[in-house]
Design a protein that fits this description.
160 residues, alpha+beta, Ribosomal Protein L25, Chain P, RNA Polymerase Alpha Subunit, Chain A, domain 2, 2 domains, four-stranded mixed β-sheet, three-stranded antiparallel β-sheet, 3 helices, 10 strands, elongated
Amino acid sequence: MKSIYAGGFLSHVLELDVDGTKHSVIPRDYQLDPVKDFALHVDFLRVGKGSKLNVQVHVNFINEEASHGLKRGGTLNIVHHTLDLTVDAANIPEEVTVDLTGLDIGDTIHISNVKLPAGATDHSHEEDVTIATIVAPSALKSSEGGETEADADEGEPKAE
């Protein structure tokens, strides 16, 4: 249960002992009791040497303090918290790290901009997956919108 709730359960190769024979397996699905929230069933997939697997890997964002856009009050809008990758079963990464250094408001981070772990390839159905964007803070957006409306009102005659 600790492994399920810790996250990444479906992307870790485990050693399973069945009648004294050890098998390398990866969990593929699990069912939880809807009331008591404990595991009822876990499906495993046996993996051999050199097997390639499609897994979801967590995305970790670093150097937020070095991002010009975030310093100026921008917000990191995360589009994908995990990435669909094809990897070797023996080398499943714990996470994919995205460096935010030097990014400004309006910048977009695509999977093509990220250095994937060795041997990992993108498995998503999108061409160049957007992982995150840095957007202007909502207060800045609303104040800009308010100024635009006020400017538009100045040029129009008012009906009395």
